[in-house]
Amino acid sequence: MALADYEAVLIHIKKTLHAERSPVVVFGGSYSGMLAAWFRLKYSHLAIGALASSASILFVEDMMLPNAYVDVVSRDYKNS
Question: GO annotations under biological process (predicted)?
Answer without folding.
Answer: proteolysis
